[in-house]
Structure formats: structure tokens, C-alpha cells
Amino acid sequence: MSRPPVRLYDTFTRSRQELRPIHDGVVRIYSCGPTVYRYVHVGNLRTFMLPDLLCRSLTYLGFPTHQVMNITDVGHLTDDTFDRGEDKMLVSARLENKSTEEISAYYTNAFMADIRKVNIQPAVEYPRATQYIPQMIELIEKLIVQGHAYEIGGTVYYDIATFPAYGRLSRNTTDNLLTGVRGDPDPRKKHPGDFTLWKAAGEHRQQLWPSPWGEGFPGWHIECSAMSLSLLGERFDVHTGGADNVFPHHEAEIAQSEAVTGHRVVGLWMHGGLLMLSGARMAKSAGNFFRITELEDQGFDPLAFRYLALQAKYRAPLNFSTERLAGADRALRQLRERVAAWSSQSAPDVSAPSEEWESRFRSGIGNDLDMPAAMALVAELMRSSLPAPVKATLLKRWDAVLGLDLDRPTTEEGRLPDGAAELLEARKKARAAKDFARSDRLREELAALGVKVIDAADGQHIKR
Questions:
Q1: How far apart are CA 285 and CA 121, in angstroms?
Q2: Count of alpha carbons within 13 Å of 44, Cβ hemisphere only?
Q3: Can you state the angle between helices 88-96 and 100-117, rounded to 10 degrees?
Q4: Long-range contacts, stretch 84-90, CB < 8 angstroms, 24+ apart
Q5: CB 358 within 8 A of CB 390
Q6: How do residues 406-450 score in pLDDT, each as one tens digit?
Q7: Is residue 329 part of a domain?
Q8: Is residue 436 part of a domain?
Q9: Domain end: 245, 272, 299, which one?
Q10: Domain that holds residue 159
């Protein structure tokens, strides 16, 4: 099957652009990763699911990928928009009475465990910001020489007036940058919107490094420029992040990287929509969040959250509630039961209809990762007249993109006994036809095979 074109929404141009890999047909992707000072919540996981779906879809469509996701373990302030507040790593170190290294190691491991629970495939590389301090210093030195940065008292600022395109990604203007800001801006800055590249270390600072401007630590924004340019080169294909990264973080990245290289670095900017809880953005700072392990402790399959996320366009906000998660959990369980039941039957040769369904699926995921369309196709396939084994084969194939573990055993001991799948399907039809006498007889036949059937409002469930 020929490789279809892939069109992705580019935040920079506000339009869908055809993806054309820059180097050797491999799609190089940089993804903003976690700041490892606390556990990630499911809103963060939705953001990290975007590059996962992108890589899965591109691989499925025949585009090899190389994804880098950074780990921020220094320099992320509590108010990064205007370079104020404390470093989040130091706040957690103080609260937990640990070193920043201990905090970083612990929450990085927790992050890796949590992404595994929702089937986010690992990136090829996970660079730590603290491993790239020399590269950051080198970038800052170049920006100073080029006239894009200035140093005052050991702190280096980026002069946004030297980069006329500043604000183009977020549609911000320099005049609007101070709107709604409380408190006095830093008087040392030429413009209140100038951002910090290197910050002079204060007293009792745990994390600090020597530099041409004295001991200090890097700003959050310069970290991603240094790591992306070092690992992916001066031109790469896609940069992903959450909608909250557009400004100031990604705006600053563009100003830094393009000023140094003299050309556009990122081909496409992709941003995931926020997760909302009771009408407000889910955030650590607001305290209105769930960790995936908390939902698991409540009895939900972690992949039910992934199923729920697939129902919405990745760029759109997604409203979260435990009621919606419960519905996703039931639907996912039913889907797995169907796949298990259908897989046990022998399949006829229906290659032409299968190709038509496959083409529609590929078209959907190639159209800006349209997962709601893909999930609608799953529902349509389940209702279709295609032979059951063919439906199972297609669903398990598509699961390479969906990541729902559709071939996970649905009983305690694995596969259903021979003949049980056919009896379950017949019983479902009998109940739909309100032939309860036949339904009861089929229940007894299933019990004789060692399969217990439990009827619920959302259908029949099975247990060995």
C-alpha cells in the first residue's frame, strides 16, 4: 500500500502543512518533557501522548521517526513569564528535605513508570538539562556577540527588540506583554519582556555552575534550544509541547535558535490542548489534578484514560471527570472482549473489504492525527457485517497506533475455551432479540465450558 501524505497543523502558520522530512526520510521530533520536581498528572500525560500518537502514526504510515524528549532538572521558575519566583526543583528539595539530584532521580523514575501505564512509547533520547550546561553557555556567548543578549550583574538577558519576529508564534506583541502583570518589572532589563538566559546565583543556591559571567544557572528557555540543536541539528521536522508552552517558552526558543543559526530551525510546531477539570485547567499549581496511579487505585484501567483522550482532537481542550473515565473504562473492556471473542474464529479471505477499511484508517490518522475519526471508524467496524475474525485482525492492527492493548486477555486465565466465543456472540444476539430463554440456555452452556457470564447495564462480561 502506497504511503499517503501526512498533513499536520502548524501553530506557527495556523494552517495544515504537508510533512516533508528534512533528512533521509526520518522525521526528527523534539518534545518538551517534564520538569521533574513533582509527579506528573493526567493532564501532563495527555500532552506527552501527542508525540506518542505522532510517532505511532508516522511509523504506521511508513515514516521512520527519531524523537528526543528533554528532562528539565534545573532553571524552571515558578513565574517563568517574567523571570520571577523560585526554581521549582529547589522548592521541592526544600519541602522534601532532599538534594536536587535526589528529587530529579525520584520524579524522573516516577514519570517513566507513569507513561508506561498509558502506553506512551519511550523516546529515543531523554537528555537532562544539567548535562548540557556547556552547550547552553556557548549559545549564550554567541547571542551576546551577535548583539541579541546583554549581561548585567552576572545575569544575561535576551533583548527581544533585536528579534523582530518575536511574538509571531503566540501572536503576542511587545506592547501586550505587560498586560495584567502585577508588581514592578525587573529594572535592569531594557524591556520588561526581555527574558533570562543565565541567572546569577543567589545565596544558598544548591544548583550552580561557573560561567563567563560568574556562578549561576541557566534559564529554562535556553535549555531546550541547546538540547534540540545539539541532538537534532540546526533544522529538524517537528517540535511538540502543550498549549501552555506556546508563550513564553516556545516563543523564546524560536528567538534564541533562529538568532544563532540565522534561519528557521523547526519545520512544524504542534501543541496539545489542555485537560480541564470542572471548567478549570488541570495543574499542579492549582492542586486540581489526578495522578494516573490514583485513578488506577480507584479501579480504573490506566488505558481507559488513553481511550478517553482519543475521543477528542489533540488540539482541543478535553473535559475530564471520573464519570467520563468510567464510561471509557466500560467501552474499552467491551472492545477487548469483542476482539477476544472474534479472534477465536477462523477467517475467510476478504482482502478487498479489509483494504478499504485500512485505507480509511490511514487517511484519518494522516489527516492531522484525527483520532476521533479513527475511533469512530472503530465503532463503525464493530457494527459492520464484516466477518468477526476480519474485524479482530483490523482492530489489532490499528492498535499499533491506538495503543489500547486490544489483544490483552479478557479472562483471568487468558484465551476463551474453544466454542465459547461463538456462544457469547449468539447469547448477545438472543438478548438483543429479548429471547431470554435462549439466553439462559447459552449461559448454562458457557458455564459448562468454565466461562461465567455476568450481565450488566453496559452488556455481558465474562470471567473464567
A1: 27
A2: 21
A3: 100
A4: 84/183, 87/207, 87/217, 88/35, 88/37, 88/38, 89/35, 89/36, 89/37, 89/207, 90/205, 90/206, 90/207
A5: no
A6: 998 655 445 667 788 788 888 988 888 888 888 888 888 888 888
A7: no
A8: yes
A9: 272
A10: 7-272
